[in-house]
């Protein structure tokens, strides 16, 4: 993993000046609510999972202009799976950044209370097969009404664990959703000692609470 020199505390930098990971394909950041300054990640190709952390790095990455690796590449244009969960400071997704997500196959938004809408640029994601929005009160209501024209082309839409649209498409990728469910399960199990006799019952209950709503 390579990265550019980190910007010093207090310095101002544009998205292009900000340090960024050069060869990262997957990125998972969980339970780091105070982590606001990290290198950006425009060249991700596999998956992105941000849970209970700041959304600043995501917004900065989406606002970047094209980056050079072996060729000129739009930020996150090769990203296939994205889960953003429990991000309290995320209020909007940049219009210009959404347009770049042309390879996205899974888009999951979970417990982002301040995120109030999905921009019109969502209409450009004509290859996106699956959108799931859970426990986002403002956003779920907007998706049913004002934002519906922005997402109505997506074959499978799940809002608060209920199917809003299912056109019978069978090309969904569930690897990130399953990964998130497993990670949540392991987090819950970590609070119990290995000698716990009721560990199996705990696992079943955790799977019911965490995994089933995602599948």
From TrEMBL:
It comes from the Eukaryota. Keywords: Plant defense. Coiled coil: none annotated. InterPro entries: LRR_dom_sf. GO terms for biological process: defense response. PANTHER family: NB-ARC DOMAIN-CONTAINING PROTEIN, PLANT BROAD-SPECTRUM MILDEW RESISTANCE PROTEIN RPW8. This is Disease resistance protein. It comes from Linum tenue.
């Amino acid at each position: 993993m390579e990265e550019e020199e980190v910007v010093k505390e207090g310095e101002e930098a544009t998205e292009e000046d900000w340090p960024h990971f050069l060869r990262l394909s997957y990125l998972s950041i969980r339970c780091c609510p105070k982590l606001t300054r990290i290198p950006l990640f425009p060249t991700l190709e596999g998956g992105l999972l941000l849970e209970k952390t700041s959304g600043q790095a995501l917004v900065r990455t989406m606002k970047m202009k094209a980056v050079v690796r072996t060729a000129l590449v739009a930020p996150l244009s090769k990203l296939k799976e994205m889960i953003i969960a429990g991000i309290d400071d995320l209020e909007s997704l940049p219009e210009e950044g959404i347009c770049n997500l042309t390879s996205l196959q899974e888009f999951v938004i979970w417990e982002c209370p301040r995120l109030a809408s999905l921009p019109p640029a969502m209409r450009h994601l004509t290859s996106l097969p699956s959108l799931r929005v859970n426990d986002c009160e403002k956003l779920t209501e907007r998706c049913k009404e004002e934002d519906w024209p922005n997402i109505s082309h997506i074959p499978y839409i799940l809002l608060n664990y209920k199917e809003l649209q299912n056109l019978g498409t069978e090309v969904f990728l569930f690897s990130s959703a399953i990964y998130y469910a497993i990670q949540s399960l392991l987090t819950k199990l970590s609070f119990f000692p290995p000698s716990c006799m009721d560990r199996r019952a705990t696992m079943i209950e955790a799977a019911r609470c965490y995994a089933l709503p995602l599948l």
